[in-house]
Amino acid sequence: xxxxxARRGARDVVKGEGAGHIMAETVNVGDKIRTLREQLELSQAxxxxxxxxxxxxxxxxxxxxxxxGLAPLIKITRALGCRLGTLLDDDTRVGPVLTRADEATAAxxxxxxxxxxxxxxxxxxxxxxxxxxxxxxxxEPTDGDYELSSHEGEEFIYVLEGVLEIVYxxxxxxxEAGDSIYYDSIVPHHVHAAGDxxxxxxxxxxxxx
Length: 209
Known about the structure:
With 209 residues, the protein is an alpha+beta fold. It has one domain: Sandwich (Jelly Rolls). It is built from five helices and eleven strands. The strands form two sheets. Strands 2-3-4-5-11-6-9 form a seven-stranded mixed beta sheet. The longest helix has 11 residues, at 29-39. The chain is globular. Residues 1-26 have low confidence and may be disordered.
């Protein structure tokens, strides 16, 4: 159940940090973007044009100098002709994928420079041809410096620990442990921990290919 909804002006980005006892092993998204781009024989400028982003973002991602927000990353994967999961997967297998509590070890950080980040721990990285992306995510509080972002698809969030604030359009929605929300990602939004403590939540993201 939603604890509170307030009206507020638009802004956004994304945030996060550590995930409890789970140790982070960062997935090198930039290397995978470079490999896929070179396989398509695209220059960084051509990929940027296809994805509708600045070429400097592609350059910084491939050099490991920045972490992209989820929205531009989804646009980049579409421009590369692949799923979001392709950048996060280590390998794939057919059939059910079981992830034990201590196995979600690869963290991918989303966000923009100068803003708090969200650390994503993939829960089904080995599942091939999947249509949903389930994640365990840890978020940090915001200092108010963020921007709203949007992308095609839908998102489901279930709060496990702490208090989460979701800015959705001009609404600010506060969720506590046990609360959940399902929304269309095309509406500008931002997810961050509320108050002074981190928050942990389960998120399922659907981005049409």
